[in-house]
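Work package 3, deliverable 3.1, input record:
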Amino acid sequence: MAKQKPRTLSGFMELLPANQTQFERMAELLRKSYSLYGFTPLDTPIIEASEVLLAKAGGETEKQIYRFTKGDSDLSLRFDLTVPLAKYVALHYAELSFPFRRFQIGKVYRGERAQRGRFREFYQADIDVIGDGKLDIVNEAEIPAIIYQTFTTLGLKRFQIRVNNRKVLNGFYAMLGLTGKAGDVMRTVDKLPKIGEDKVREILMDEEIALTGEQADEILKFISITGSNNNVLHALEEYKGRHELFDQGLEELNTVVKYLGSFGVPEKNFAVDLTIARGLDYYTGTVYETFMTDHPEIGSICSGGRYDNLAEYYTDKQLPGVGISIGLTRLFYVLEEQGYLNDGLITAPADVLILPMTDDLSPAIAFATQLRAAGVRAQLYTEQKKFKQKMTYADRLGVPYAAFLGEDEIAQSKVSLKDMRSGEQSLLTIDEAVNAVLGTVKANGDAAPIQEPAGS
Amino acid sequence: MAKQKPRTLSGFMELLPANQTQFERMAELLRKSYSLYGFTPLDTPIIEASEVLLAKAGGETEKQIYRFTKGDSDLSLRFDLTVPLAKYVALHYAELSFPFRRFQIGKVYRGERAQRGRFREFYQADIDVIGDGKLDIVNEAEIPAIIYQTFTTLGLKRFQIRVNNRKVLNGFYAMLGLTGKAGDVMRTVDKLPKIGEDKVREILMDEEIALTGEQADEILKFISITGSNNNVLHALEEYKGRHELFDQGLEELNTVVKYLGSFGVPEKNFAVDLTIARGLDYYTGTVYETFMTDHPEIGSICSGGRYDNLAEYYTDKQLPGVGISIGLTRLFYVLEEQGYLNDGLITAPADVLILPMTDDLSPAIAFATQLRAAGVRAQLYTEQKKFKQKMTYADRLGVPYAAFLGEDEIAQSKVSLKDMRSGEQSLLTIDEAVNAVLGTVKANGDAAPIQEPAGS
């Protein structure tokens, strides 16, 4: 028969079992971490009616959409989890309680140009809190705690959450009489880490944005306010009383910083950073970015902010919210590439590989059943192979234990348990064997999927 | 601004938070249950190249495919998890260890005619064991144990796993000289529960299949062999020695039944059923179906079997396997419809809703942080609302506990904890409150998502 060459589309991540197991552990910890903060899981369709999904979209995004017809229907694959959330909240408004807190971890699709580390199908892991009409500032203050908890749970230690407030920025630009130009200015200032201060000043003063030298200097002075959170907040006090929006933003920023300690976020993992603007005009209050201390070049690994109107394309209801998103597929790719995945994590499909040595398999099967009842992942290996091949299989899977049941063991109601890492083999009662393995299972269950490379 | 009416496509399940939480619990328990048997998680793309995905397909399936072009690429959405598995194993053959045991829980797409209880996007939850060249019969014997463990873990008690063997069937038809007609005959016999014995006999003897009355009677006699497993196996012994394939199948069936006890499967949840054939020609050994005792009309909720060649469209390698599949979306729909979902399960996004009664929120936030550190899901409610509205919110979410922190509580380093179900309120130390809630969290963690209706 003619064979079809098997292949996976480029831009689509398909992992081998060990990596997939690490990925699953990360997703599981995200679910757990988000749940601790009172977010409910949601799962919306991957396909939506195009006129619904693209009610707002345009420009770059629209070009990347996977859009097609099926029968009479014009359909599109979701390109993020925010638009489906807006649809969901507008559609089910009457059945939801507000503030509505949801997390969603799901695949989204963008037909980007294929290149290394860019994905066309990728997971996003989002949380959002949606208010009905109003939403208290404490929700914004809590976000750094969630980011901190999440990455700490994953095993990352050297990272920093950077926070700013769009009202502080917009208020500041209003003081300078630059409200109409604030968007352009912020997009330019956003490029500061990449292009440097001189180039930013130049763009700010070019034909298009056309600031005066004085205005450009004021802006550069403002965004050069750095140092400890107290220093930055103190420096911002100087601008107080000149514009209402600024004052409101500063109060919000003070509230966010004030509660950090109670939320359990260490100072070193958090910084007020006036250069953070988030390109989108969408955001209206606190904005967040998160950087790996040793790999700032990767960019923000968790971003988001406060917005005033989630679902204006679907409903007249005012639905303000705050949310963050982790690009999980890209993050996983980067972590693997940078050697941040914990090699000590057991990625084998089983904790014990059971190798029966007798024709009657009943004792081996009963042992497997006991292990499973105790919560141990057990695999029976009954293929007709030479002993050496069986051990090669155990090695390749990376199982922490192999168990042998021969005539002798069965006669004594015991099992020979081999610790595959130390090579040590012991003759144990069934209960002793179960307990020995359970210790390893427990330790592995507590192990984090990320381990920072030594010396970083 | 003109609004776009929000809607979700028909045939696409989109659950409200409480139901979604129940669904997630089911998916989580499936992952756990499959893992106990040594299956590794896999996640393949939802989109594949059409020529790869449709290498085999044809007829009904092909019509249902979501197929489209993007740029120069002819793409299709997967319609099951088996074809992507075949592709995966053929593609990554050199990097996998065999037997290769994987589970996958993922969405698949079929553009079926929309009707109640039919879904176009739905989850399948599959496990498969793939051998390289050969695969031991014990893998087939283990499948009923996995089905039993899985449904028992979900909370279902009244179900039966029915098993047959295609070699027994094919061997029997060979004895009657009906090998060429075995497919037609089995498809007809498959209809027995729906159309009855007389109608089956009629179809078997009509122009198309054209059996003699004697042959038809032999078949009806054969498939009417029922009773305890021992009775059925004993009756089958009568046919022994007449055809090699039959004898081999009977030996396999005996092996499957022999190990049931060691695998922990109770007799009452298992039956050898000679009418089970599974329509597909794909299966070659043991075949499985699973029925809810009180709702046989729903059909099999978990089916599968042994096959000889997983990936013949992609590779010359002989890759025999055995697998089962649960249609999770449909199962969930049915369970909800039949009142099988456990209403006692906590479906609120949080275990404790914290209601601060002071301006300074630090103590309330610190309490939330302590709860979360202990593994309790805690939500702060800080919106400016009347007390009654706050309690309505707590009620609607269904949180088991509300916690109040006023001046008095804070002065004593205590918290007022209200059990929302009993209505009881107690003034407790922080540790006491954490422990009280942890008890509920633990009990809920052990609760099953399915609860059979009383009297069934």
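Chain A touches chain B through 105 residues (CB under 8 Å).
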